[in-house]
Design goal:
alpha/beta; 12% helix
């Protein structure tokens, strides 16, 4: 629960539900993780300050905008083109 930063770049993730328990997470790296949609539960990480989602080509700007509304204090780095 007290993990402040987690780097999962390049991991082929399909589910990150277990991250919901990391209530103190402030920095999360999911670059190049093969995400086709934003994992459920990210919006519950209310302490998150920085989220990296670059190089996940299937993610859309609309998905990221929706997450940004849920996490207004978080800076989300992405390169979504859709």
């Amino acid at each position: 629960e007290k993990v402040p930063e987690l780097e999962l770049d390049g991991k082929q993730l399909t589910d990150v539900k277990s991250l919901e328990k990391l209530s103190q997470l402030k920095h999360l790296h999911l670059n190049g993780s093969g995400l086709t949609e934003l994992p459920k539960g990210l919006e519950k990480l209310t302490q998150l300050k920085v989220l990296w989602l670059k190089d996940n080509p299937d993610l859309t700007k609309a998905q990221i905008d929706e997450l940004q509304k849920a996490l207004p204090k978080c800076t989300i780095h992405h390169n979504a083109k859709k």
